[in-house]
Structure formats: C-alpha cells, structure tokens
Recover the amino acids of this structure.
C-alpha cells in the first residue's frame, strides 16, 4: 500500500508542480488549440471568426503572462527602490507591444465582419458547405 | 538629398499617397490614379538611389525617432532589402499603369478604394522589407495583409468568400509569427534582428529558441503559401479583380519569402538551422513538393487565371528550394527567381486581364486561333512569358532554374534536381496547352443564317475566318509588352545582375 502511494506521489507531485508552475501557459495553450479547432472544423463562418479571435487573444496574453514578474513594481526608475535589484522593476515593453497587437486584432475583426456581411448579402447564408454549393 | 533618410522615405511616399488619394479622389477620380502613380514613381526613385548608394558606400541604418538600436526601431537598407524595394516598386509602377483602364472597366465604383489599398499594401510590403525589428515586421506584415484582404475582396461575386478564407489563414499565420517572436524575445531579451543574431549562438540549445524559430517559419510559410499551407492562394488570386491579382501575385508571396531569407540567413546562424534543426531542409523539401503539386493542379485547370494561380504555388516552391539548399548558389537562384517570377507572373496576369477586358473571359477551353489575329501582341507576350516560365534559354526563367540546379548538383541533392527537371516538363505541359489553343485550334464554324443561303461558299469561308484586329488599349498593352521584353533583357543580363547585385547580398557566413 505504501509502495503504491509512493508511486502515486512520484507521478502526481511532479505533475502538480508542473501545472502549478505553468498553469497560465497551459490555459493559453488550451485557448489556442480551441481556436485552431474552431477555425478548422466549424462550418459556420461566424464561429470561425470566434476561433480566430481566440488565437489572437491567446497570443497576446502569452506576451503579457511572459512579462509578469513576482514582486516587481514600477517600470521606471524609482528612488526608494534603488538600482541594486533589477527584479523590482517590470519590463514595460511587452505590454506596449501588445497594445499595438490588440489594435491589429480589432482591425482584423472589423474587416472579417465586413466580409461576412458582404457574403451574407450575396448568398443569404454563413454555413460553409451551403455557401460552396451556392457559389457553383 | 540626404541619403541617410532614404529608408523611411520609401515608406512615407506610399503612406502619404494613401492619405491623399481619398481626399483628391473626392474631387476627381482621375486624380486618385495620378497620385498613386506619382507616389510609386517617387518611391521607385528613392529605392533606385538607395540601391546605388548601398552598392557604392555600404548599408544605411535608419533609427526611427532617433532611438538607438537595439532599443529603438531600426530600418536597414542593405543590398538585399534595397534590391527587393526596387523590385516591388518597379513592378508596382508597371502594374499601376496597367490598372488605369482595367479598374475602370472591371470595378468602376471602387477605383478610389483600389488605389488607396494599393498604397497601403505597398507601404506594408516595403516596411516588411526594410525593417530590422521583429515586432515592427509584424506590424508591417499586418498592414500589408489587411490591405491585401480588402484588395482581394474587390473582385467578382465570389471574391468575399476567397478573401475571408485568405483572412482567417493569414491571421493564423501572423499569430504563429507573433508567438514565435515572443519565444525569441523571452530568450534573448531583444527584438532587433542584428542583436538577436549576436545573442542566439549562446542559447542554441534552449528549447524556447527552437520552438520560437519553428513557429516563425511556420507563420511566414503560411503567408508565403508554402506547400501544405497554400490553400488560400488559388481562390484568392482567381476571384480577385485582374488588377488586384496582377498586383498581389508577383510581389505578395515574394516579400514573405524575403522575410524567410532575413530570418534564416541574417538572424540565425545558418549552420545551426541546417545541421541541428533541419528547418532549412524541411522548407526546401516542402517547396519541392509544392513545385510538383502546384504544377500538377495547374495542368488540371480550365481557367487561365486559376491555372496561373496554381502555378504561383509551384513558383514559390522554387524559392523555397533555394532556401533549402542554404548555399550561395541556392541563394542566387532563389533571389534571381524572385525577380524573374515577379516579371513573368505580372506579365501573364496582364495577359489574362487583357483577355477579360477584350474577350470577356479567360477560359482556356473557349480559346481558339482567332486570338492570334485579334490580339497578336498580347498572344506574343504570353508566349514569351510562358517560354520563360518553362525555362528555355535565353529567357530569364532559364537562368534562375540553372543556378538552383547547380546548387542541387553541388550538394549532390538529386531529389531537388529531379524535381526541377520534372517540373520543367510539367510547366511545358500546361503552358503549351494554352499556346496550342491560342495559335492552332480552329475556330468553331459559325452556322450560316438559314434564311439567306449564301451563293458563294468560298466567300463565306473567308468571311468567318477573317477576324478584325481587336487589340487591348495601349495603357494595357504597353505594360504587358514591356514586361515580356524585360524577360529577355533579364535573361541576357543575368550575369551582370548576379555579379553586381546578388553577390554583394550573400552574407559572409553562408
């Protein structure tokens, strides 16, 4: 029994620590995969756009999570904090970059909605197989 | 003129064009066309003077807003990027002259949007070529891509569907690229390509770097329509308007291929990619499969524009094969092929556009030998471009394949050599099919009107076979002829191009 427990722990403890250490990344991986799945497998164009949005959000949040630092405070030089410990300062670059990426994502969404409206007006459907049928 | 400002001027000319065209076009549509031409001519002038300056005095590094790299964004004008800028702006200039009548004819209510989007696309593409910063590259990539999606959507009835597919796949490609850049940034702490090049050798065992590079190559491969990721391209090119296709097909995928060059030969040590990661080989073999696959599908097509679009998949494959060789000869072959293919494909799409302009369709099955009489010059231009695509000397297409084949022999890579030879035959198969119909297939006999039987059957026969010349207008014909003649010039001048333009680009470590 104790042997079994030890084996169990031997498997479980690293697994738990892996999840604990990286749960944000695992969550983003899941988000990215769901997005890819929706884009490839869903028949409705609207759902494809949702999948695309998932992928973009996952990418943007990946940068943000990567920039997170425990106990880090401001991004600029602050007199009381001093210069001895650079871990106290946060790198602001990923956040600023992602502002641009968010703008790009919004523009892409806007364009895709415009295209969807154009498609719907012409074919009266957003269902992909039906759409391909009507395109013939 | 201050030559140090040249990199930014190339982009600014297009951005100002994009701003001015809707404003001026509000008063007169013609002004939009003229503004687009002026902006492109300016940018072409800046690119050529940049290329001359770079060749004589070395590279120009421009620091945006005065921030020193690696903290600020750096624009780099070196032989490779200057050459690509000249190629992009030069081809665009010819395409814009061609577009004048074409856009009026095909999409008369969208001329202003067409020229505005063209300028935005060009600003994005030139920015991608010039930038030395990984994130800035992403921004320019998205500018070019968004303008491209909208350009594709201006087309026939099915164009929005093709544009939607292009948009979803293109966005995934950009997301992969951005994710890859995140891994590189986390590992190296820098976004400047030159800086990353210095830091990466210390980190080559890091798994994050390997994942990052793979994701970047994957994302750019999607944009470049590398073999398994090419699904968006044929539809997008076939359903967009002729003017938009003539603009996107020659330069769109080339710039993505250029980014692959930048990343694989200038940001990462090629030996690392070749021996430890095998990314270069994988890209090369995917390209080789793409060459065969694209050619075979092109043979099956019954519509000229769709056939040319599938042949683009194959031609991008040649560039990928050159990257896969990762040797100076492969480099020369790939760059030369980017130049030649841009001219050939633009010329061929011009021909399909002129056919649609005059005949009303570009279906291969409906072609017959009346074309050689109605549009003799257009047909001749098509034949010359087709010969160059097949790769017969002395046209340009022969020499790029020649360098690729030499590179394959040098590395005893018989698979690549076999693919190059077989693809030449496949190219011949689908181009000769069109040429045969254009020149040899007799016209269907028109049944004589039954009410009034003709007295002289000989007279009637000559009447039906005699067709009046009905050539495309000069603004469409001249660009077509210019590009087809340029193929001969490029072919004859290839030795000069290689020694004076391409050899200075090859990095020392290759």
């Amino acid at each position: 029994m104790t042997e079994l427990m030890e084996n169990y722990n031997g498997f479980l403890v690293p697994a738990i620590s892996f999840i604990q250490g990286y749960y944000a990344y695992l969550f983003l991986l899941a988000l990215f995969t769901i997005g890819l799945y929706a884009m490839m497998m869903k028949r409705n164009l609207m759902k494809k756009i949702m999948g695309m949005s998932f992928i973009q959000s996952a990418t943007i949040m990946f940068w943000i999570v990567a920039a997170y630092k425990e106990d880090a405070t401001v991004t600029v030089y602050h007199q009381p904090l001093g210069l001895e410990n650079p871990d106290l300062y946060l790198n602001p670059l990923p956040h600023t970059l992602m502002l641009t990426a968010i703008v790009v994502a919004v523009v892409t969404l806007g364009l895709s909605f415009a295209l969807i409206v154009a498609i719907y007006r012409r074919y009266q459907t957003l269902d992909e197989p039906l759409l391909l049928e009507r395109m013939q | 003129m201050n030559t140090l400002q040249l990199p930014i001027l190339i982009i600014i000319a297009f951005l100002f064009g994009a701003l001015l065209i809707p404003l001026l076009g509000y008063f007169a549509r013609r002004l939009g066309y003229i503004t687009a031409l002026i902006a492109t001519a300016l940018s072409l002038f800046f690119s050529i003077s940049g290329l001359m300056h770079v060749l004589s005095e070395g590279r120009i590094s421009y620091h945006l807003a005065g921030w020193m790299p690696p903290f600020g964004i750096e624009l780099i004008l070196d032989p490779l990027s200057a050459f690509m800028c000249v190629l992009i702006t030069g081809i665009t200039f010819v395409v814009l002259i061609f577009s004048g009548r074409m856009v009026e004819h095909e999409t008369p209510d969208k001329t202003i949007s067409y020229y505005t989007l063209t300028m935005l696309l060009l600003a994005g593409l030139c920015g991608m070529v010039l930038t030395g910063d990984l994130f800035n590259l992403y921004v320019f990539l998205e500018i070019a891509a968004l303008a491209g999606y909208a350009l594709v959507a201006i087309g026939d009835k099915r164009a929005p569907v093709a544009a939607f597919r292009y948009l979803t796949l293109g966005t995934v490609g950009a997301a992969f690229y951005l994710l890859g850049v995140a891994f590189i940034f986390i590992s190296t702490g820098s976004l400047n390509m030159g800086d990353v090049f210095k830091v990466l050798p210390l980190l080559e065992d890091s798994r994050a770097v390997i994942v990052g590079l793979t994701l970047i190559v994957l994302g750019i491969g999607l944009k470049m329509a590398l073999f398994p990721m090419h699904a968006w391209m044929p539809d997008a090119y076939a359903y967009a308007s002729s003017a938009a296709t003539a603009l996107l097909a020659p330069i769109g995928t080339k710039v993505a291929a250029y980014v692959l060059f930048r990343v694989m030969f200038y940001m990462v040590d090629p030996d690392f990619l070749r021996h430890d990661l095998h990314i270069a080989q994988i890209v090369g073999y995917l390209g080789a499969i793409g060459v065969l696959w694209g050619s075979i599908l092109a043979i099956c097509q019954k519509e000229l524009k769709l056939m040319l679009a599938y042949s683009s998949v194959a031609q991008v494959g040649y560039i990928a094969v050159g990257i896969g060789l990762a040797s100076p000869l492969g480099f020369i072959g790939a760059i030369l092929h980017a130049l030649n293919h841009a001219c050939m494909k633009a010329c061929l799409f011009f021909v399909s556009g002129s056919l649609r302009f005059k005949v009303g369709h570009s279906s291969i099955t409906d072609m017959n030998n009346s074309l050689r009489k109605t549009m003799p010059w257009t047909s001749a231009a098509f034949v010359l471009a087709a010969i160059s695509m097949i790769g017969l000397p002395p046209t340009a297409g022969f020499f790029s394949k020649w360098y690729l084949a030499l590179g394959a022999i040098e590395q005893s890579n018989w698979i690549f050599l076999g693919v190059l030879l077989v693809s030449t035959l496949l190219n011949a198969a689908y181009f000769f099919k069109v040429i045969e119909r254009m020149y040899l297939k007799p016209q269907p006999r028109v049944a004589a009107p039954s009410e009034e039987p003709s007295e002289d059957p000989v007279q009637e026969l000559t009447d039906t076979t005699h067709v009046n010349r009905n050539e495309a207008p000069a603004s469409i014909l001249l660009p077509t002829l210019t590009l087809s003649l340029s193929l001969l010039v490029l072919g004859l001048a290839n030795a000069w191009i290689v020694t004076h333009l391409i050899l200075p680009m090859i990095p020392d470590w290759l």
